[in-house]
């Protein structure tokens, strides 16, 4: 297989992927993936464990190489993982400032970090140590570290999976508010179908290394899991995933 090459875009897009392939030994993980994420679009990616969701996200984010295909990302992609991955011996503001691109200036970087921490509701915790943060606060700090890079594409690898239900809903609201203000593209990997429907403009189902379905979510925001229309989408997606509802 040849290495991934770069596509020249023909229309505005946060990312464009063509015929992307990836193998681990004899196992094909991604098999000819074609995907476009529009500028300012939120796309959710669901699939069974081991279906290649995180691998695709890591390739788009530049953390892993593809075996074949084409990748174009307009601007700067940034990844937020399920674990906040904060450095425990650095205060929150310094952890966030580490997201700033080089060359770095401590005063300028910390000023930018404090501004973003205020955006995510953590201004009062800027000088706290990471181990004193709650799970939701730690994930807000991780999100701030991503936002301080001023990304055009935010790659989210199950960032809310370890949070309790109430904190997760709070983070959903925060993400949608930040997205409305900044208009970055989003690719969200999640196992939670309701989370995908609540947040995304489209939900993609990944199966056997291929995108098996592309489901637009034609519902106004805010969306709640209790709404009948959300339940209808959930039934459809669970059926596509081979899960009884």
TrEMBL record:
It comes from the Bacteria. InterPro entries: AAA+_ATPase, ABC_transporter-like_ATP-bd, ABC_transporter-like_CS, ABC_transporter_ATP-bind, P-loop_NTPase. Keywords: ATP-binding, Cell membrane, Membrane, Nucleotide-binding, Translocase, Transport. Residues 15-233 form the ABC transporter domain. One of its GO terms (molecular function) is ATP binding. The keyword Nucleotide-binding applies. Signal peptide: none annotated. The keyword Transport applies. PANTHER family: ALIPHATIC SULFONATES IMPORT ATP-BINDING PROTEIN SSUB, TAURINE IMPORT ATP-BINDING PROTEIN-RELATED. This is Sulfonate transport system ATP-binding protein. It comes from Nocardia caishijiensis. The lineage of its organism: Bacteria, Bacillati, Actinomycetota, Actinomycetes, Mycobacteriales.
């Amino acid at each position: 297989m040849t290495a991934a090459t770069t596509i020249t875009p023909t229309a505005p897009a946060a990312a464009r992927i063509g015929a992307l392939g990836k193998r681990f030994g004899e196992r094909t993980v991604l098999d000819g993936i074609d995907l476009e994420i529009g500028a300012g679009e939120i796309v959710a990616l669901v699939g069974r464990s081991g279906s290649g969701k995180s691998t695709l996200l890591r390739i788009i984010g530049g953390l892993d190489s593809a075996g074949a295909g084409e990748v174009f990302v307009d601007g700067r992609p940034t990844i937020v993982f399920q674990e906040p991955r904060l450095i425990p011996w650095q205060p929150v503001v310094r952890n966030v400032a580490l997201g700033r691109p080089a060359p770095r200036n401590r005063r300028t970087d910390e000023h930018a970090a404090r501004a973003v921490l205020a955006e995510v509701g953590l201004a009062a915790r800027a000088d706290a140590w990471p181990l004193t943060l709650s799970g939701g606060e730690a994930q807000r700090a991780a999100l701030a570290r991503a936002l301080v890079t001023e990304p055009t594409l935010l790659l989210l690898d199950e960032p809310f999976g370890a949070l309790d239900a109430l904190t997760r809903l709070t983070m959903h609201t925060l993400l949608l508010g930040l997205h409305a203000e900044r208009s970055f593209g989003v690719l969200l990997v999640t196992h939670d179908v309701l989370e995908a429907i609540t947040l995304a403009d489209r939900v993609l189902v990944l199966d056997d290394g291929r995108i098996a379905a592309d489901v637009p979510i034609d519902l106004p925001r805010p969306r709640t899991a209790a709404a009948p229309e959300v339940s209808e989408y959930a039934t459809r997606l669970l059926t596509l995933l081979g899960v009884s509802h």
